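WARN  no MSA supplied for this record, continuing single-sequence
INFO  ligand: calcium ion
INFO  echoing inputs
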Amino acid sequence: MPIGVKITANHPQAEVFVSRRHHIRLLDFRLALLVFLVIAAIFLITGYWVVQRTRNFYLAQMAAEAHRLAGSYSQQVVVSAQAEEIVASLLAAKIDVAGDVIVQTDRPYSDALLSQLAEVLGVDEIYAYTPAGVIRHASNGRTIGWTATPDHPVHTFMVSGQASEIGPIRSDTESGVYYQYGYFRTSDGGFIQIGVLADKIQALLSQFELQKMLGELAQSDYIQYIGFADAAFNPPSDSPAGLDWARLMSPDAREAIQAGEDVHATQTVAGTPMYFDLSPVIVGGELHGSLVLGHDMRATNNLIRNVTTAWLAALGIIFLLVMATLIGVRLRNRLLFQEYYFNPLTGLPNRHYLDASLGSAPQADTDGALILINCQNMSLVNTLYGYAFGDQMIRSLANELKQLIREPDQLIHMISDRFVALIRQSDGRDGLVSLCDHIQAAAVRLYPDKKLKLAIAAVECHPGPLEPDKLIRQASLVLRHHAGQNSQACYFYDQAMEETLERQDQIETILRSLSVGQGLEQFSLVYQPIVDLKTMRIAGFEALSRLKTARLGFVPPPEFIAIAEQTQLIVPLGQRVLRLACRFIADLTKAGFGQIRVSVNISALELLRDAFVPDLDAIVRETGIDSASLGVELTESVFSDNIDLINERFMQLKARNIRIAIDDFGTGYSSLSRERDLAVDAIKIDKSFIDRLLDLEPDQAMTGDIVSLAHRMGHLAIAEGVEFENQRAYLQSVGCDLMQGYLFSKPVDAKTALDLLQRQNEG
Ligand code: C2E
Ligand code: CA
Ligand code: CA
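INFO  complex generated
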C-alpha cells in the first residue's frame, strides 16, 4: 500500500512518488508522452502535406499539360481555319473565273461541252440547271434529271434571285465528298453549278491537326485520355466507355468553359479513378469546343500510397526510437532512484529517502520518537565469520524490523549496521520501551548465541518542527554515552547527556593535541607518597595524572582517563606518564633516593599492546633508570578478560624487577584462586574497604581478611585512601604493609615530593 509520501528532493529526477513496494512512478513520463505526441503531430501534418503536395504536383502537371494542349489545339484550329479560308478563297476565285467563262459561252450546253470546259477550266464538276432546278446537263454525264429539294443549297440559290453565289466548302449531299460550289444565273433563266473538289485539302488539314495532337499526346506522361468536345458540348466521339458525360459536363462546367475557364473533375470510369481537365478551345474569340484530358489516378494514388506508407514507417521508427530512449531514460532514472534512495542490501529506504520524504520543513503533529538501532559488533562478526554472514545477519534483522515497524512509522536503513525507526505517533516511554524489548527479543531469537548485539537509543520528539538530522545526532550521542552498556533494551536521550558529551568532545580534543605534543603544559603528574606502616617512612610514590585546562579547569582523572581509553588516546598518554615518572625516578636517584619506588597506573589497553614492553624498555633506557625502581598498577576490573595475555606481560615485567600491584582490589569480580597464579607482587586494598573501618566493627569490615589473604598468596598489602588515624592504627594492627592517603599526604608535585624525602632524612 503506498504511503503516499510525495518526495520533492533536490535530486535530478525532480518529482517522484514512492510506495512501500518501491514502486516508482516518474511523473516526467507525461512529459515524455507529450513530446511524442508533438513529434507525431508534426509528422502527421508533414506527412499529410507531402501527400497533398505529391498529389497536387501530379494534378498540376496534368492541368498544365491540358492547358498547353488546349492552347496549341486552339492554335491549330485557328491555323487550319485560316488555311481553309485561304484555300476556299482560292477555289472561289477559280470558280468565279470558270463561272464567267461558262455563262458567256455562245455554244449550247451539252454534257460534252461541260466536260470539255471542266477540263479546260480545271474544275471538277459543272451542272446546268433548268429554271425549275432540274439538272439538264452535267460534265460527268450522270445525275441528269436530279432536282434540288427545297432545303438544299441549290434550291436556296435558285429562289434567292441572286446573279451568282459562291458557297463554303461542304460535303456533297449525295456523295459526302467535300466540295466547294459556285452558282451562276444564265440568260435562259436557268443556272449552272460549278464544283471544285476540296476533299484532299480537307483531309490534309484535318490529318495534320490530328497527327499533331497524337504527337503531343504521346509525349505526355500525365495524360492517358484525350478527346475533343465540340462547341455544342457533345461528347467526344471516342469518349471512354462508362464515362458519365452529363455529370462531367454539368451546367456549371459548361458555364465555366464558356467563360474561358478550365474545369477539373474526378470520376471513376469503369472502375478506374480518373481526373479530368476540361479546357476550352477559343478561336477568334469564339468557343470552338473543349479539350477533354483524362489522367489515370491509379499511378498517382499508388505513389501517394507509397509515400504515405514510407512516411508512416518513418514515423513508426521515430516512435520506436523515442519510446526506446524514454524507456531507457526511465529505467536509468529508476536505477539511479533505487541506488540513491534505497539500501542495496535490505531494499529499505536510506537516509536520502528520509530527508526527501520529510521535505524541507517537516513538522510533527503528534508526540513521536526516533529510534536508532545499532548492531554493535558487526566489524568483529565480519572479521570472524565473513562478510556474507554479516550481510545475512543484517538482512534477517531488517526482516524482523519490517514486521515490528509498520506504517505510518518508517523504517530506514541508514548505513551498514544502523537502522532508524521514525515513530510518528508514540504513546509515551512505555510503548517505546516495549517496542525496543521486542526488537531485542527478535535479535536473540535470530541469534541465540548473541552474535547479534543491538544497542538502541530513543529520542522523543514533540509536536513542532522536526529536525531528523538533530534527532539522529542525539540518538548517536545516546549510544556513545552508553557505549558498552547492555543492561537496558534502549536508552533515552536527555539534555544533560548532551552537555556531558560536549564536555567529552572537548576533553578528547585536548587529549588529541597532547598526543601530538601540543599544549603539554596542561598535563602533569603528581606523586602521592606510599608509607611503610611499620616505620612510617616513605617507601614509594604513586604517580597520578593531572589535567588542567583554561576552559574546563581541573578535569578529574577518572573522566579523562575513560575518554582516553575509549578513543585509544590512552596509548600516547600512557607513554607520556611513563616517561615523566621515569624522569622523576632519575631525579630521585640523582638526589640519592634510588631505593624509592615510583608506581604508575596503566590501563589494560596499554598493557595488551604488543609494543608495550619494548616501548617501556626504550623509555627506561632513555631516562637511564633502574627498572627495579618502577612499579605498575593495574585495576582488578579488567582481569576477567585476557587473563593469560595479562599474565604473560606480568612475567615480562617481573623479569625486569618491576613491581606489579593489583589496584582497587575487592571491587572487581575476579576470582581469587586465579589471581593466586598471577605474577603479582602487591594488592592495593580499595578505599571502600578502608572507609568501612569507620562505620563497621573491624571484624565485619573484611579489611583484615584481605590483608591476611594477600600475605597468604605471598603479596604485599597496600591500603589506599587512609584519611584517619584510627584507620592507620587498625591497618598497622592487622599487619598491613604499606599505606597511602591524605592522612600522610595528598598527591604533590615532583619538587614537593623530593622535599618530603629530604625532610624525612633530616628528621
Ligand atoms: P587510583 O589508582 O585508585 O588512585 C588513587 C586515587 O585516590 C587518586 O585519585 C588519589 O588522588 C586518590 N586518593 C589518594 N588518597 C586519598 C584519600 O585519602 N582520600 C581520597 N578521597 N582520595 C585519595 P586521582 O588522582 O583522582 O585518580 C583517580 C584514578 O584515576 C586513579 O585511581 C587511577 O585509576 C586513575 N589514574 C590516575 N592517573 C592515571 C594514569 O596516569 N594512568 C591511568 N591509567 N590511570 C590513572
Ligand atoms: Ca592506583
Ligand atoms: Ca585505587
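Confidence is low (pLDDT under 50) at residues 1-27.
INFO  checksum written, moving to next record
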